[in-house]
Amino acid sequence: MTAPLSIHLQACAKTFADGTRVLEPLDVQIKAGETLVLLGPSGCGKTTTLRLIAGLEQPDAGGKVLFDGVDVTQQSIEARNVGMVFQSYALFPNMSVAENIGYGLRIRKLPAAAQRERVAEMLEMMRIAPLADRSIDQLSGGQRQRVALARALAVRPRALLLDEPLTALDAQLRDTLRVEINQLLRRLAITTIYVTHDQAEAMALGDRIIVMSHGRVAQMGTPHEIYHQPANRYVAGFIGTMNRVQGEYRDGGLFTCPAGRLRWPGAQASGAGELLFRPEDVSIVGEDEPADLVGTVTASLYLGDRTRLIVDLGQAQPLTMDCLARSAPAVGQSVRLQVDPQGLLALAA
Ligand code: ATP
């Protein structure tokens, strides 16, 4: 493989012919060799961003796409040499697996021996060598996605663009392929842009994640930053589970609510507000220990390795937390809770 590519989107807005503005001017630097995940709900502009990078769509006037600093905005998808994989495999049904993988090589008129060698290498890499002569309709969904990846990588693309490649697969296969794709991308160190609406997939695969909302970047950061330092309530609510407690900030670092009080280390003007924290920052404490909050268990979901508890605090949104299955309190029981002050967040809407 050649040296990985850096991609720069400069003021890339997109307005479609019908006047719909689906991307606000977007400025993103994608580092050479990294996997950048575009995450967000349906319709937020992820696929449009990917298509701008591929050259399948043009940005509005003034927007630029740079590959290693070179302006490629006017270049075709072929000239940009990027590999694409979609949710709907888009394989050629009338060709065998090997013919599908070799398609781009034939188009590029690679010598026959080099084509055979490259196809064999891809079959091996994706662990589908025994399927080489099968036709596409004889393959499972997971096998088809392996062929699609092999076809995209066979031409040695400068970047790999993946649009929800695992969405059509069942949960178990998705988990397996997610691990395989992760290992493959690390090994190849190819610059990858990966579109998904699945936050677990984003966390597992991304070196960095862009959380998108209505054509805008809500936050860009590492999975760790996005999870632990969400920039706003939208991001906090989109990734993982987040508890919200409404109450009042008081002097002296206290936040009070009907269910108790939290020690709040941050500076905040007195007045009504909301604190947020993750389920893993909550623990049950005994009668003789100081409690921050007191509530009543309203649901207890046995998950095998742990039990998820839903606790009523007399607020609009109940609290979610996990505890060891063997020490789980019963539904209806009152629980005394401590919240790790390190996990408390006060966020803008
Ligand atoms: P999904 O996960 O559903 O594919 P997405 O985040 O990838 O969503 P996009 O496919 O980028 O979102 O679409 C963003 C918005 O642009 C949507 O509201 C969509 O209907 C609109 N859109 C996409 N293509 C066109 C087009 N050619 N003309 C007009 N509007 C379009």
From TrEMBL:
Residues 7-239 form the ABC transporter domain. The keyword Cell membrane applies. One of its GO terms (molecular function) is ABC-type transporter activity. It holds the Pfam family ABC_tran. Gene3D superfamilies: 2.40.50.100, P-loop containing nucleotide triphosphate hydrolases. Keywords: ATP-binding, Cell membrane, Membrane, Nucleotide-binding, Translocase, Transport. InterPro entries: AAA+_ATPase (IPR003593), ABC_transporter-like_ATP-bd (IPR003439), ABC_transporter-like_CS (IPR017871), ABC_transpr_MalK/UgpC-like (IPR047641), Mo/tungstate-bd_C_term_dom (IPR008995), P-loop_NTPase (IPR027417), Transp-assoc_OB_typ2 (IPR013611). One of its GO terms (cellular component) is ATP-binding cassette (ABC) transporter complex, substrate-binding subunit-containing. PANTHER family: MALTODEXTRIN IMPORT ATP-BINDING PROTEIN MSMX, TREHALOSE IMPORT ATP-BINDING PROTEIN SUGC. This is Putative spermidine/putrescine transport system ATP-binding protein. It comes from Roseateles toxinivorans.
